[in-house]
Fold:
Amino acid sequence: MMPRSWNRLPRVDPDRVELLTNRSQPLDSNLPRPLLAYGNGRSYGDVCLTERGTLMLTRGLDRFIDFDPNRGVLRCEAGVTLAEILALVVPRGWFLPSTPGTRLATVGGAVANDVHGKNHHALGSFGHHVRALELWRSDGRVIECYPEEGNGWFRATIGGLGLTGLIRWVELQLIPIQNTWMWVESQRFANLDEFWTLSRRAEALWPYTVAWIDCLAKGKAQGRGILLAGQHAAAQAELPVFKEGSKRMLFDPPFSLVNGLSLRVFNALYYRQSVKPQGGLSHYVPYFYPLDAIQDWNRIYGRSGFYQYQCVVPPREAEAAIPALLDTITRHGEGSFLAVLKTFGPMPSLGMLSFPRPGTTLALDFPNRGDKTRRLLDKLDAIVREAGGTLYPGKDARMPASLFQSGYPEWEAFKDYVDPDFSSRFWQRVTS
Amino acid sequence: MNSLKRVILFGATSAIAEQTARQLVAQGASLYCVGRNPDKLTALIDDLKVRAGSQQCIDGCVADLVDHSRHEHLINDATHVLGEVDGVLIAHGTLPVQQACEADVAMTRKEIETNALSVISLLTLLANLFEQQQRGVIAVISSVAGDRGRQSNYVYGAAKGMLTLFLQGLRNRLAKANVDVVTIKPGFVDTPMTADFNKAGPLWAKPDQVAKGIIKAMQRGKDEVYILWFWRWIMLFIRHIPESFFKRMTL
Structure:
């Protein structure tokens, strides 16, 4: 089985697939070039794919190296998943300082895409919590990178899409927790205007906020949805019992199960779910990782896969650009299963190519209907570009080079740090 | 049920042994790990130490097990570190290139040395130790390849077949001493040792799945175990094909 990205697009095969298992072994000079690391295949698009050369699977680099339970400092190999970290550190009172919506990503992937979570406005992105990392270059050089040093290797590698060399280990600063539960308040909002107000208020009070919106709602109800605000629960005299269930998507349906009808039903039901404005306890697993409960959920889109579209638009433009994006989607008769809206905080990202930046981010997924879908995404591009925004490389399979280059002005300086033997289909696409 | 609180792992950095080590540590065991590659052994021990609770002891030693002269020292050191030994897993081995062995008997001897004789040397010492303490379990990773000689890998098969037979005798002897001897036949496992194979299909097991099977077999004091159930039937069938017919097959 050839490695694929999570949205199963594009389908490209490298010349060779090599499992890495020994972090002390230098990169093999006999492997066909270019080289690229592939973690657990949770990015969308082609940042983790190459059409030629070698994909180096990092899941064999899954060892912990050191953990200081008093200071919450963990060092581990790059192929360790966030789930494996949580299983180790949560019982000892620590948590990931920043986590994406899946815990099945690897640490190396989290660094290379400088991933973010619901607490971006409070604690920044994943890269802000990396204390050190080690890079193996194809010329045999080993570079230890620290945030405080000025030579650029750290800034290039955080969000560097795995292009600066092989990340072998990462050292993280964790955050302390009292227990495995979250205190969560959910609130319904009737439209986008209410969202802006509600979201501003929630961000001042809560470390975690995120909103789901019904992207099919039109007119006065445009952008209606549910805002979830949360924080790690305080010590409790008594905690509920949590039992994790697991389901699996067992087959590829012949067509996408996400279609006009199912979207309408799902979105309407989701909006009408019971909310808890007074707050309640939720275990961290369903709170942070609702989709991980269904293994291989990406198969619901069928064999042709789907497109993720995640953009960010600057604060000044957001209140005009977000409705424009939603208008375009509804007019096109498309919809997204889960549309997620979140405001990034003011903290600048550390990486040269980091995606998070001040503004509002909207994440959508669309079943792949070929040209029809791509035409819609091109229209969304125009709005994002006009607003001075950009797209998330870790969720992209098709953005034009010009949009990448305008959104990541440091890309040319970054080129100096790219390992000459490393490349990805994404990188070839956006730099050509 | 055999308790597995203090276990020695030979060939500890192999993919199967590493997964077994992690699962044993998760169940509260103290481990003594022997591996040939110093970098890999250090990485393994550091990882297990991070996973282990404060009461568990994780230690080990670098050794090439082809060097029989070190075996006694290794076992003494492990016994010293662990206090007592509840179980041993011998997991080291190599997968020879059959054609290279056909071209050069030195190659064949080397493979038999690694896959059979070095294990038999360890087993000889361990058998006496366990016989004395009148309890415990010795598990060895053999192979389905040892169930019948086939043209595609009969050197490996012969080495593993020797192990399987040796273990049968040892089991018979140690049964009187209340010591279990477990022969593990994992079948195809997706590990770096089998990197050159196309691993699609239901015959292939994952190392963590094999590890789980090994621990269960050790705890229950099983005799000969196939990790995936159907291998027993596949091998039963293969063993019963008449030789006059089998010799013309290309398995």
Summary: Chain B is about 50% helix and 15% strand.
